[in-house]
Each structure stands twice: as structure tokens, then as C-alpha cells.
Amino acid sequence: MSTESVQFHHDAERLTRDVRHRGLIQKALGGYYVKRDEQKSRYTDWQMARASAAAAKYEAVNHLDTYLLELTEKLEARGTKVFWAADGAEAADYIASVARNAGVRRIIKSKTMTGEEIHLGQALEKCGYEVVESDLGEFIVQLREEPPYHIVFPSMHLTRGEISDTFQKKLGSAPAETPEELTMIARDVMRQKYCEADMGISGANFAVAETGHLSITENEGNARLSTTLPRLLVSIVGIEKVIPKLDDLAVLLPMLATAGAGQNMTCYNTLLGGPRAAEETDGPEEFHVVLLDNRRTTLLADPEQRDALHCIRCGACLNVCPIFKNIGGHSYGTTYQGPIGSVITPHLRGLQSWKHLSFSSSLCGACSEACPVKIDLHHHLLQNRRNAIANKPVWWEKPIFAGFAWFMSRPALYRFAAPLLRVGGPVLHAIRGRFFDPARLWTATRDLPPPPRESFKEFWRKRNASR
Amino acid sequence: MVKILEKLGHQVEYPETQTCCGQPAFNSGYWGEARAVADTMLDAFRDAEVVVGVSGSCGAMLKVFYPELYHGHAREAEAKALSEKTHEFSSFLVNVLGVGDLGAGLSAKATFHDGCHGLRELGIKREPRELLRHVRGLELVEMGEAETCCGFGGTFSVKFPEISTAMGEVKCASILETGADLVISNDSSCLMQIQGLFDRRGEKIRSMHLAEVLALS
Fold first, then answer.
1. B147 and A404 in contact by Cβ < 8 A?
2. Measuring CA to CA, which of A6, A244, A443, B51 is 20 to 30 A from A141?
3. Pick from A369, A406, A445: which is nearest to B161 by CB?
4. What is the mean pLDDT of residues B144-150?
5. ipTM of the complex
6. Cβ partners under 8 Å of residue B192, min gap 6
């Protein structure tokens, strides 16, 4: 077992026993289901909308070479500097050098999972910059020195009381009870940070090749402030975020809001086209876009799972995933939690180290059903399992499945299974759940059904004999 | 199932050479071993006109996953042929035979659990409810989040028993909330998980397979 797998088992086991955590997540998501269904019902044809969103992403992902060049050309034409980063280290080094050259001291950062993926905030802090998260959820987990719990709702695992405690401890604020009070505390701190920051960092939800715009969608207005107030702006964008046309946003933005948060549209939708132009009164003086690969091209090279690059990071698959709901976001130990994380992390960070995430699924398929861009998530988990075993079978499993195949391809032997069960059943029942029970992985928490008095085969024979 | 199909005038054959569909090996990543087992199924059902199964999960294996398992292999055409003629029991009754009322009766308050493979791989949701609607004396109540997995998931249930159990507990709570005294499903493996948890807790809820209910008169 990889160390990542050991950690996962340990954390998942702890969280599944935490009934308080389970209730908290169920309650939060219960509200989301209601709002999501309300919004979905406003679509004339949700399935058609999914197909059309998937088609836009399919077109982009299968022609990345064309669209990324078009995007770069359009961005550069308006004075944006575009940097192509092969991996996280290259991206972080470039961004640090931009900050250094411009004499930056303070950085305000809006939500970016791509930034999380390469630990950009920590890398810049190491270089001596102050980095402040401006998304409320991200701000809270930053204060708590925790990674985001969920790709869209980073602090959904915390109660108001816990957030108030964090604010009291880290910001010296008075105890607060309502969401409004808590927001005002964060706002007071943040407004000052916006004014002081000399560099903004953002991600992007989409990058429009046709017009050379980054599209950012959010509910707090923090991304708009982070990208327009500081004199310098760097946006980090995964290469799969490119979409062909501006019109594609008409499908993708409402889709993201509906699937992600149960909203018709998010409150703030920004299109960033370049640095401040001569006739403009606001916006950054300098704008850098970092296009990040970081092994996305490995996924691109896999025709079976290439559609995982369609992902718009809405989190819908996490919200419906019974595994996520029971083990929580932190147990995954990944930037991207839930089904999408279980699918792509083995590609981004190594199959053998992260294959356990693909096995940790009942393959119920709720994720694939929920995905607004039609990623075949749960079947990709099966493919990851197959690839992991083909590449390196588990030493103790291999003989078990060889035995299974041997036994099950011998129908003459199979018929003795039921009589054997009848003999062994009472013995198993007597020792159920104990250390020496061979079925204890099941029986520690669950009973086994009593063996049937008569197997179907026995019934069938008797019936035919009596005819 | 045999009783019901014969009552409807069909000749039922049971090829005794069949064993397992191979799903445990398939889901565990051992596709070669899964094919070795699946080969016996291709042999056993070669001459059948129609294959009907009482498990949504095994049904999905034959119908959806065999073509994938044999993709690019010598017996791909046979796997596809078996896939096409395979039906899950409730879907066969409602969609192929066009029956709804089987004359069954059972006095109980029941809730139906959708097995995920039947529900999402085979798209079966309406069919079992249509059949149960006609059962005399049966009151059917829907549970909250009926489409949430019970946590069985085959080898998942023993590879990650703690996650599987937590998922099962959530499912059992949804069932208890309905006040039903019976839980019905078209997948025995889900019922093994649900009943196993209820039994361990001493809850008096019974579980029955859809076919068992429909065969009662």
C-alpha cells in the first residue's frame, strides 16, 4: 500500500464514524439538492443542455492545439503576457519572478483550484510575500491552515460557531453568530487588503479562444476586486479551461451555476480581456496569463479518459457522491476531491500512489449522472482499476482471482458451493465478527444471510425430476 | 421468476453450466480472470432466445460491461449478441412482455430500493414500481434519497468496510423514516447489505426481492 493509501484508509475510517460530520454534510447538501432541482426544472431540456455543454468542451479539448494558440494570440494582441508552464514549479517560479521584478510585497488572491493544485499560495509565501485569500470560504480555511474541503465550498465542513472561533483566535474579533456578522468581520479585514495589495492572483472558469477573454464567475465580488484593483494581475489557467467561442458561455455559465451551487446564475460574472487600456480608468497595469499543463497532456493522450478534461470544476459529482458525503473532502488528500479527483489524480500524480481512490467506490454512477459536461466518471474508475492491476497486480489478490476464475469456469464444481455453504454457514455464524472469522470484513458490522435451505440448482433438478 | 414466466406461458430453461458473471474480478481490475469466467456464460447462453436475470447488477454486467470486457477480443461479437438479448426481470416484464398486473397480493407497507446498476446502467426505475402498484394489499411508500447507493458495491464492501457500512447506515435511516415494514429491491446484493445491517441492529424490517413479492398469490 502506498503511503497515500494508508493515510486515506486512516482518515476515511475516522470520518465515517463521525456522525456529527455526517449530519453536517447531509444538511448542507440537502439544501443544495432543493435549489439545484429548482434551477434544473427551469431548463426546457436539461439533458440537451448537458449534451451541448459537453459538445463545446469536447470541441475544445480535442483541438487544444488550435484553441490555445488562438487564445494566446488574442490575449497578446491586447498587451497581456502569456506564459506556458509545463508544471507547477515552472508556473510558481514564473509568478514569483513577475512579483519580484515589479517590487511586489502584498498579494490578494481570489479562488483558484489550479493555484491550489500547484500550492501557489505557499510557494509565494515562502518567497516572503503576504498572500491573502479573498474568497470567504478560502479565507476561512487559510486562517485555519487547512486545505479546501470541497472544490466549490472550501469550508462547508465548518459550523458558524467554528468559524467564529477561528475569527476570534486569528483576527481578534468579537464572537459572532449570524452569517452576516461573520461576513462583515471578513470584509473589514479584506477591504484593507485589497487596497494594500500590489498584485492580484486569480484563476479562470473559462478562457474564450475566439475573443481572448478569461471568464470568472463568483458570488462575492472578491474575484472582481482582486483582478481589477491591484496594479499587477496574474491569472493561472489550466490548459483545459479554453473554450472555442464566446457564445459557449451562454450554455456553460448557467450550467456551472446550476450544477455547482443550485443558482440560476452566479452574482458576478467578469470577462478579463487584458491590462488597462489607454482610455480606461481601472484595471491592472500589467496582466500575465499562465497556461498550465502539469500532466493534463498525459490525460489528453488517453483516448478513453480524455473527457475528464471537460471538467468545469462545478463540484456536482462531489455533492451527490455517497463516498464523499461519508468520508469528507479532506480524507482524499488531493486538491480535487470526490469522483473527479479519484479519476484524474492518478493521471496527474501517479497511478500506483493514487489508485486506491478508484477502488474506493461502489460504482453507483451518481457522479456520471450529475456531471453537467457528461464525463463518464464511474466507468473511468473501472478503467483506472484495470490499468493499475495490468500495470502491477496486487500480490495477494492475484491468486485469489486466479482461483475465482478457475472455480467459476468449472460448473461441475460450482454445484457443490451451496451444500458447502450449508455446512460452513452455521460455523461462520457462530464466530461472526471475531478475529478468526474469515468473513470479518463483512461481519464486523453486518450479519450474513443464512445459507439457503435449497439452492436454485437443487430446486431446478428436483423440479425437472418430478416432471 | 420461473413461476411468473411460466404462468405467463413462457418456456424457461436454466443452463446448469452457468456460474458467475465475473463481476467481482472485473470490478477489481482483473479483466483477464473476468473473461475466463464470462466465457462460461457466453457458452451457457449461446442458444437462448432471450436471457432474463433477477439482478440488476449481474444484468448490467452482461448487458453493459461484457461488450467492454471483450472489446478487441475474439469473442466480442458473441458478447454483443448476449448483451442484446439480455434483460433485467422487471424491465422484461414491463417493456418486452407489456404486463403490469401479475395477480400477486401481499399485505404490507413497503419501500423500494433502486439498485444502482439497474437504475443507472440499465435505466430501470419505473418498471418495478409499475409491477408493485398492482400487488393487492401492498402500500408502497418512497423513501428520501431513494436513488442513493446502499454502499454494497461488491468487493468495495469488504475492501472499504467502514465506508460501505456508513453508506448502508444512511440508507437504513432513509428506510426507517418511511415507517415501512418491508424493503423490496430488484437486486439481492443490496438487500444482503441492508438486511445485514438491520439484523445486526435488531431492527424488525424484512427484505424481499421483487420477484418473491410478485410470485405471491
1. no
2. A6
3. A445
4. 95
5. 0.96
6. A448, A449, B152
